[in-house]
Amino acid sequence: MVDTEGRVVHADFVRGLGDLQMSLGDLFRRWPALADGAMQAKMRELVAPAEAIFLDVKFEAELIEVDEDDAAEMLADAGIEAPGLEQLAKAGYEALGLQS
């Protein structure tokens, strides 16, 4: 497998990233304190220069169940600029050097 810059990326490494993602998700479910600001700052350092995006799956599930106005109000009340999927898409586009 070759990445976008022509470097060889081993499948084991890619699988390892998936395992890490699942492990981090499990950590957040088991220990909600890991989602605090200080811990998020540490996590951001770990994945730098990539962007770290933190999602509250329960909040995201609730968000898609309400109308657009209520969703905007929920986001504003939570201090979140955009829904998680929108954040992920934006980060993906930026990582790939694409424009939406």
UniProtKB/TrEMBL annotation:
InterPro entries: P-loop_NTPase (IPR027417). This is Uncharacterized protein.
